[in-house]
Write a structure and sequence with these properties.
This protein has 68 residues and is an all-alpha fold. It has 3 helices and no strands.
Amino acid sequence: MAYAERLTRAPWEIRRGDLDDLRGAGLADDQISDAAQVIAYFNYINRIADGLGVDLEDSMPPDPREAG
């Protein structure tokens, strides 16, 4: 989670040590790459939505678990 937060809030602060921590937790380089791409994609979509004034919550289908 620390990596995701840092990549979201201050990507310029990512250091080799951050990646080494992920490797130390058992992630392979391809898994780290996948995670970085998913994190970046969600950041991108949210930034576009914010920039266009789109409320993503309003466009989400209802959660069937909440339907009574």
